[in-house]
Amino acid sequence: MENKEVINTLSEIRNMMERSTKVLSLSGISAFVVGILAVVASFVAKSILENGWLHVYKVRSLMIMAIALFVICFATVLYFAKRKAEKNGLLFKFDKTVRKMLWSFFLPLIIGGVLCVGLIYQGHYGLTSSFMLIFYGLALVNLSNFTFSNIKYLGYVQLVLGLVDFLMIQHSLLFWMIGFGVCHIIYGIIFYFMYERKKKGEE
């Protein structure tokens, strides 16, 4: 009897941890907002590239914009994750499970970021978007081991877009917008209606 109670308790703790991680990691609204921001950023990047500035100023402006976009998107995801956790009655904290999840997600991004900086430094600008998409796709596939498994499909789409972009670098900005913008918007809408809207209906 005692063993059964221990097993049940451990099972409840495990379910709570998994539920907490899922709540902290994904929000359909945040994915949608990130997608909108990426689409806007792609149009801003297009205007910068078509501007008559010197090439060095164009590259510098794009890099500053990319860093700003990443910070804003990360802050957006954290904000909606915190709000979602509070609505579900869970504490928003970076425990061991969440730290492992973040490490699995950010490791490919860090490696990809370093490679992209190297490509820019060597003047291979057209290849940076494909590397961004490929390493972001790998990061999403890694993330699926800790959260909702269907996010791996978004990762697979990013990988395919990155590989196609690698072969068609003349359309790199278009592929970047589709991958980081349009795909996030579509995934955010699907995720919201599959999980968040459905849960509201049940309540």
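^ that was protein a. below is b, sequence first then the tokens
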Amino acid sequence: MLEQRIQQHFIDSADLKYQAAQALGKPIADAVQAVLACVTSGGKILACGNGASAADAQQFATFCVAGFERERPELAAVALSANAALLTAAAGNGDLAQQFARQVRALGQAGDVLLALCLSGNDANVLAAVHSAHERDMTVIVASGRTGGVLATVLRETDVLICVPHDRAARVREVHALVLNCLCDGVDAQLFGEQETP
């Protein structure tokens, strides 16, 4: 019984990835182009998310700076969820919705990219960060689930929505991990050429 349940997780995950491949191909390619435009003009990527998405944002920033699957020059990226002092300062002020937005206002400049990871598309602190990014004339890439929530309604034409069409958080997170891998690989391939995979 337990083994069947485990096997079903693998099947469901594989099915969703297969179904999402066509639907997400273009938005991921658009996101790659947005990141390329940013880094080739000397900009940086600010990444944010809550909970497990915060860990994804940190991993993405790590891949940008330390490299993904090859040795290459560093790309400027910062995970806004990595500074515990800044995050808890917002709690002390009673304004948790501004914990990412403050950092975007402090660090973001025109031409930079905000990568916002939000399963529901409705997290107030991520929404505030998007508004701050727009005030700074930054491009926004949102990775969400379901229908994209409120975040899908505030994006501009130059922004990118990568919306995983599923309700289950675990499945959406699994596809988000693949999306971020595709984004890193796409940027590396465009900047430094194709690389043979072992």
